[in-house]
Design a protein that fits this description.
Layout lengths: L1 E5 L8 E5 L4 H12 L10 E4 L14 E3 L2 E5 L3 H8 L10 E4 L4 E6 L2 E4 L17 E2 L2 E2 L1 H9 L20 E2 L4 E7 L10 E6 L3 H15 L6 E7 L1 E2 L8 E2 L12 H23 L9 H28 L1
Protein backbone atom coordinates (compact mmCIF):
# COMPACT_ATOMS: atom_id res chain seq x y z
CA UNK A 1 0.00 0.00 0.00
CA UNK A 2 1.16 3.51 -0.88
CA UNK A 3 0.31 6.97 0.44
CA UNK A 4 -0.02 9.59 -2.29
CA UNK A 5 -0.37 13.20 -1.17
CA UNK A 6 -1.82 15.63 -3.71
CA UNK A 7 -1.84 19.41 -3.03
CA UNK A 8 -5.17 21.23 -3.20
CA UNK A 9 -5.53 23.54 -6.22
CA UNK A 10 -7.40 25.92 -3.91
CA UNK A 11 -4.65 26.31 -1.32
CA UNK A 12 -6.36 24.20 1.36
CA UNK A 13 -5.27 20.96 2.96
CA UNK A 14 -3.79 18.38 0.54
CA UNK A 15 -5.74 15.26 -0.40
CA UNK A 16 -4.41 11.85 0.62
CA UNK A 17 -4.95 8.71 -1.44
CA UNK A 18 -4.04 5.26 -0.05
CA UNK A 19 -3.68 2.96 -3.06
CA UNK A 20 -2.48 -0.50 -3.94
CA UNK A 21 0.34 -0.66 -6.49
CA UNK A 22 3.54 -2.52 -7.36
CA UNK A 23 5.63 0.63 -7.68
CA UNK A 24 5.69 4.32 -6.81
CA UNK A 25 5.01 5.26 -10.43
CA UNK A 26 1.97 2.99 -10.57
CA UNK A 27 0.73 4.39 -7.24
CA UNK A 28 0.99 7.94 -8.57
CA UNK A 29 -0.88 7.01 -11.75
CA UNK A 30 -3.66 5.35 -9.76
CA UNK A 31 -4.03 8.32 -7.40
CA UNK A 32 -4.06 10.84 -10.25
CA UNK A 33 -6.78 8.83 -11.97
CA UNK A 34 -8.87 8.75 -8.79
CA UNK A 35 -8.41 12.49 -8.24
CA UNK A 36 -9.78 13.15 -11.73
CA UNK A 37 -10.44 16.77 -12.59
CA UNK A 38 -9.32 17.90 -9.14
CA UNK A 39 -5.67 17.75 -10.23
CA UNK A 40 -3.68 18.82 -13.27
CA UNK A 41 -0.88 16.90 -14.95
CA UNK A 42 1.58 19.49 -13.62
CA UNK A 43 0.44 19.17 -9.99
CA UNK A 44 3.31 17.84 -7.84
CA UNK A 45 2.56 14.77 -5.72
CA UNK A 46 4.41 12.98 -2.94
CA UNK A 47 4.47 9.19 -3.02
CA UNK A 48 5.47 7.18 0.06
CA UNK A 49 5.30 3.46 0.74
CA UNK A 50 2.98 2.72 3.67
CA UNK A 51 5.76 0.87 5.50
CA UNK A 52 7.87 4.04 5.60
CA UNK A 53 5.08 6.24 7.02
CA UNK A 54 4.91 6.41 10.82
CA UNK A 55 1.22 6.07 11.87
CA UNK A 56 1.95 8.41 14.78
CA UNK A 57 2.42 11.26 12.30
CA UNK A 58 -0.93 10.68 10.60
CA UNK A 59 -3.93 12.86 11.43
CA UNK A 60 -6.46 10.11 10.70
CA UNK A 61 -6.24 6.31 11.03
CA UNK A 62 -5.27 4.84 7.68
CA UNK A 63 -7.77 2.59 5.88
CA UNK A 64 -7.31 -0.99 4.80
CA UNK A 65 -7.61 -2.02 1.16
CA UNK A 66 -10.12 -4.65 0.06
CA UNK A 67 -10.02 -5.52 -3.65
CA UNK A 68 -8.22 -2.21 -4.18
CA UNK A 69 -11.00 -0.20 -2.48
CA UNK A 70 -10.32 1.84 0.65
CA UNK A 71 -12.27 0.69 3.72
CA UNK A 72 -12.51 3.11 6.65
CA UNK A 73 -13.66 1.81 10.04
CA UNK A 74 -15.48 3.98 12.60
CA UNK A 75 -16.72 3.63 16.17
CA UNK A 76 -20.25 4.76 15.33
CA UNK A 77 -22.25 5.93 12.31
CA UNK A 78 -22.61 9.54 13.47
CA UNK A 79 -18.82 9.85 13.67
CA UNK A 80 -18.59 8.24 10.23
CA UNK A 81 -21.04 10.76 8.75
CA UNK A 82 -19.29 13.78 10.28
CA UNK A 83 -15.82 12.66 9.24
CA UNK A 84 -16.82 12.10 5.62
CA UNK A 85 -17.53 15.83 5.48
CA UNK A 86 -14.13 17.02 6.74
CA UNK A 87 -11.45 14.41 6.09
CA UNK A 88 -9.04 14.85 3.18
CA UNK A 89 -8.31 11.12 2.88
CA UNK A 90 -11.93 10.06 2.21
CA UNK A 91 -13.04 10.11 -1.42
CA UNK A 92 -15.90 9.20 -3.72
CA UNK A 93 -16.57 5.44 -3.65
CA UNK A 94 -14.64 4.74 -0.43
CA UNK A 95 -16.29 2.16 1.85
CA UNK A 96 -17.50 3.05 5.36
CA UNK A 97 -17.69 0.28 8.00
CA UNK A 98 -19.21 0.59 11.49
CA UNK A 99 -18.89 -2.88 13.08
CA UNK A 100 -20.52 -1.83 16.38
CA UNK A 101 -23.80 -1.09 14.53
CA UNK A 102 -23.34 -3.65 11.73
CA UNK A 103 -23.58 -0.77 9.25
CA UNK A 104 -21.65 -0.62 5.99
CA UNK A 105 -21.88 1.61 2.97
CA UNK A 106 -19.88 3.93 0.76
CA UNK A 107 -19.35 7.62 0.01
CA UNK A 108 -21.36 8.80 -3.00
CA UNK A 109 -19.93 12.25 -3.74
CA UNK A 110 -20.70 14.05 -0.45
CA UNK A 111 -23.41 11.56 0.62
CA UNK A 112 -22.55 8.68 3.01
CA UNK A 113 -24.86 5.88 1.79
CA UNK A 114 -25.61 2.65 3.72
CA UNK A 115 -26.16 -0.67 1.92
CA UNK A 116 -26.97 -2.51 5.17
CA UNK A 117 -30.52 -3.02 6.52
CA UNK A 118 -29.52 -0.92 9.53
CA UNK A 119 -28.19 2.38 8.22
CA UNK A 120 -27.55 4.22 11.50
CA UNK A 121 -26.88 7.91 10.79
CA UNK A 122 -26.08 7.30 7.10
CA UNK A 123 -28.45 7.91 4.20
CA UNK A 124 -30.44 5.04 2.75
CA UNK A 125 -29.91 3.60 -0.71
CA UNK A 126 -32.95 4.66 -2.73
CA UNK A 127 -32.51 2.21 -5.62
CA UNK A 128 -30.24 -0.82 -4.96
CA UNK A 129 -30.67 -1.88 -8.59
CA UNK A 130 -29.18 1.33 -9.97
CA UNK A 131 -25.61 1.82 -8.75
CA UNK A 132 -24.26 3.51 -11.87
CA UNK A 133 -24.91 7.16 -11.09
CA UNK A 134 -23.82 10.06 -13.28
CA UNK A 135 -21.50 7.68 -15.12
CA UNK A 136 -19.78 6.45 -11.93
CA UNK A 137 -20.03 2.73 -11.13
CA UNK A 138 -20.50 2.22 -7.39
CA UNK A 139 -21.17 -1.52 -7.66
CA UNK A 140 -17.63 -2.58 -6.58
CA UNK A 141 -17.91 -0.37 -3.49
CA UNK A 142 -21.34 -1.78 -2.66
CA UNK A 143 -20.06 -5.38 -3.01
CA UNK A 144 -17.16 -4.74 -0.64
CA UNK A 145 -19.46 -3.03 1.86
CA UNK A 146 -21.98 -5.89 1.80
CA UNK A 147 -19.19 -8.43 2.33
CA UNK A 148 -18.26 -6.68 5.60
CA UNK A 149 -21.67 -7.22 7.19
CA UNK A 150 -22.30 -9.97 9.73
CA UNK A 151 -24.00 -12.95 8.00
CA UNK A 152 -27.35 -12.64 9.87
CA UNK A 153 -27.66 -9.02 8.76
CA UNK A 154 -26.49 -9.45 5.17
CA UNK A 155 -29.08 -7.87 2.88
CA UNK A 156 -31.29 -10.21 0.89
CA UNK A 157 -31.81 -9.58 -2.80
CA UNK A 158 -34.09 -6.58 -3.27
CA UNK A 159 -37.72 -7.50 -3.95
CA UNK A 160 -39.25 -6.87 -7.34
CA UNK A 161 -40.56 -3.36 -7.74
CA UNK A 162 -44.34 -3.28 -7.11
CA UNK A 163 -46.66 -1.78 -9.73
CA UNK A 164 -47.18 1.96 -9.71
CA UNK A 165 -49.15 3.22 -6.72
CA UNK A 166 -52.81 3.82 -7.57
CA UNK A 167 -53.48 7.39 -8.60
CA UNK A 168 -50.07 8.15 -10.13
CA UNK A 169 -49.59 9.22 -13.73
CA UNK A 170 -46.41 9.30 -15.74
CA UNK A 171 -44.69 12.72 -15.76
CA UNK A 172 -41.19 13.22 -17.11
CA UNK A 173 -38.72 14.15 -14.39
CA UNK A 174 -41.31 13.95 -11.58
CA UNK A 175 -41.16 11.54 -8.63
CA UNK A 176 -43.43 10.73 -5.70
CA UNK A 177 -41.31 9.97 -2.64
CA UNK A 178 -42.64 8.41 0.57
CA UNK A 179 -40.62 9.18 3.70
CA UNK A 180 -41.27 7.93 7.23
CA UNK A 181 -39.94 10.09 10.04
CA UNK A 182 -39.67 9.51 13.78
CA UNK A 183 -43.48 9.53 13.98
CA UNK A 184 -43.40 5.98 12.59
CA UNK A 185 -42.34 4.78 16.05
CA UNK A 186 -45.75 5.98 17.32
CA UNK A 187 -47.64 4.19 14.57
CA UNK A 188 -48.27 7.30 12.45
CA UNK A 189 -48.20 7.22 8.67
CA UNK A 190 -45.39 8.55 6.44
CA UNK A 191 -45.14 11.82 4.52
CA UNK A 192 -45.43 11.94 0.74
CA UNK A 193 -43.42 14.47 -1.27
CA UNK A 194 -43.68 15.19 -5.00
CA UNK A 195 -40.44 16.52 -6.47
CA UNK A 196 -38.80 17.21 -9.81
CA UNK A 197 -35.46 15.41 -10.23
CA UNK A 198 -33.42 13.76 -13.01
CA UNK A 199 -33.36 10.31 -11.34
CA UNK A 200 -34.69 8.32 -8.37
CA UNK A 201 -31.57 8.75 -6.22
CA UNK A 202 -31.62 12.54 -6.56
CA UNK A 203 -35.39 12.62 -5.93
CA UNK A 204 -34.95 10.66 -2.69
CA UNK A 205 -32.11 12.94 -1.54
CA UNK A 206 -34.08 16.12 -2.31
CA UNK A 207 -37.24 14.90 -0.60
CA UNK A 208 -35.43 13.54 2.45
CA UNK A 209 -33.43 16.75 2.88
CA UNK A 210 -36.60 18.86 2.66
CA UNK A 211 -38.41 16.54 5.09
CA UNK A 212 -35.60 16.68 7.64
CA UNK A 213 -35.43 20.48 7.42
CA UNK A 214 -39.15 21.27 7.39
CA UNK A 215 -40.07 18.69 10.05
CA UNK A 216 -36.88 19.18 12.10
CA UNK A 217 -36.50 15.41 12.11
CA UNK A 218 -33.28 13.58 11.22
CA UNK A 219 -34.68 10.09 11.97
CA UNK A 220 -36.00 9.40 8.47
CA UNK A 221 -36.37 6.39 6.18
CA UNK A 222 -37.11 6.55 2.44
CA UNK A 223 -39.94 4.04 1.97
CA UNK A 224 -40.44 4.34 -1.78
CA UNK A 225 -39.55 6.42 -4.83
CA UNK A 226 -42.12 6.08 -7.61
CA UNK A 227 -41.95 7.76 -11.03
CA UNK A 228 -44.91 10.00 -11.77
CA UNK A 229 -47.20 12.54 -10.11
CA UNK A 230 -50.50 12.13 -8.20
CA UNK A 231 -53.77 12.44 -10.12
CA UNK A 232 -57.11 13.67 -8.82
CA UNK A 233 -57.98 10.21 -7.44
CA UNK A 234 -54.71 9.82 -5.51
CA UNK A 235 -55.87 8.32 -2.19
CA UNK A 236 -53.40 10.06 0.19
CA UNK A 237 -52.45 13.58 1.13
CA UNK A 238 -49.14 14.76 -0.30
CA UNK A 239 -46.78 17.75 -0.33
CA UNK A 240 -46.04 19.13 -3.78
CA UNK A 241 -42.57 20.69 -4.03
CA UNK A 242 -42.77 21.29 -7.77
CA UNK A 243 -42.78 24.86 -8.97
CA UNK A 244 -41.11 26.20 -5.84
CA UNK A 245 -38.57 28.81 -7.03
CA UNK A 246 -35.07 27.58 -6.36
CA UNK A 247 -31.53 28.16 -7.38
CA UNK A 248 -29.05 25.37 -7.89
CA UNK A 249 -25.50 26.08 -6.77
CA UNK A 250 -22.89 23.53 -7.85
CA UNK A 251 -20.07 23.28 -5.34
CA UNK A 252 -16.72 21.62 -5.82
CA UNK A 253 -15.92 18.81 -3.32
CA UNK A 254 -13.35 21.08 -1.66
CA UNK A 255 -16.04 23.70 -1.04
CA UNK A 256 -18.40 21.11 0.44
CA UNK A 257 -15.69 19.95 2.82
CA UNK A 258 -14.93 23.54 3.81
CA UNK A 259 -18.61 24.22 4.53
CA UNK A 260 -18.68 21.07 6.67
CA UNK A 261 -15.63 22.30 8.61
CA UNK A 262 -17.41 25.61 9.26
CA UNK A 263 -20.53 23.78 10.42
CA UNK A 264 -18.59 21.57 12.83
CA UNK A 265 -16.62 24.54 14.18
CA UNK A 266 -19.88 26.41 14.87
CA UNK A 267 -21.30 23.33 16.59
CA UNK A 268 -18.26 23.10 18.87
CA UNK A 269 -18.63 26.76 19.82
CA UNK A 270 -22.37 26.33 20.47
CA UNK A 271 -21.75 23.29 22.68
CA UNK A 272 -19.16 25.29 24.62
CA UNK A 273 -21.62 28.17 25.15
CA UNK A 274 -24.41 25.76 26.14
CA UNK A 275 -22.16 24.24 28.81
CA UNK A 276 -21.86 27.58 30.61
CA UNK A 277 -25.32 28.98 29.89
CA UNK A 278 -25.98 30.00 33.49
CA UNK A 279 -27.57 33.37 34.44
CA UNK A 280 -24.95 35.70 35.85
CA UNK A 281 -22.07 33.39 34.89
CA UNK A 282 -18.72 35.17 34.50
CA UNK A 283 -16.15 33.79 32.05
CA UNK A 284 -12.78 32.77 33.39
CA UNK A 285 -9.76 34.07 31.50
CA UNK A 286 -9.13 30.61 30.06
CA UNK A 287 -12.76 30.26 28.88
CA UNK A 288 -12.67 33.71 27.31
CA UNK A 289 -9.47 32.78 25.46
CA UNK A 290 -11.06 29.50 24.29
CA UNK A 291 -14.11 31.33 22.95
CA UNK A 292 -11.92 33.88 21.17
CA UNK A 293 -9.88 31.08 19.57
CA UNK A 294 -13.06 29.32 18.38
CA UNK A 295 -14.48 32.52 16.89
CA UNK A 296 -11.20 33.31 15.13
CA UNK A 297 -11.07 29.75 13.77
CA UNK A 298 -14.57 30.12 12.30
CA UNK A 299 -13.67 33.49 10.74
CA UNK A 300 -10.53 31.96 9.21
CA UNK A 301 -12.51 29.07 7.69
CA UNK A 302 -15.09 31.45 6.22
CA UNK A 303 -12.39 33.69 4.75
CA UNK A 304 -10.70 30.65 3.20
CA UNK A 305 -13.98 29.66 1.58
CA UNK A 306 -14.56 33.19 0.27
CA UNK A 307 -11.01 33.25 -1.14
CA UNK A 308 -11.61 29.92 -2.88
CA UNK A 309 -14.83 31.19 -4.44
CA UNK A 310 -13.01 34.35 -5.57
CA UNK A 311 -10.24 32.23 -7.12
CA UNK A 312 -12.79 30.06 -8.96
CA UNK A 313 -14.60 33.12 -10.27
Amino acid sequence: MWKVTIPSPYGGEPSIYWVAADSAAEAETTARHQAGDGITAQSPVRVEHADTVDPVDEVWPRPRLVDGIRVFTFDDSRTAYDQTQVRDDLHDGDVLHIPSENVAGFLMRAWPIAVSPNRGALHGLADPDDLVIDGIDYRPSARVAQALLDPPEAPSPPPARPPLTRGLRQAAGTWTVTIAGSERHDGEGPYIWVVDAPDATTAAAVAESHHQTSQEDADTVVRSVEPGAPTADYPWAYNDLRGIPSRTVVLAPEHIRQLARIRLACKRRDRFLDSIDIPGYIFTDAEADDLTDMNEHIVTLVRQLIDEFSTDA
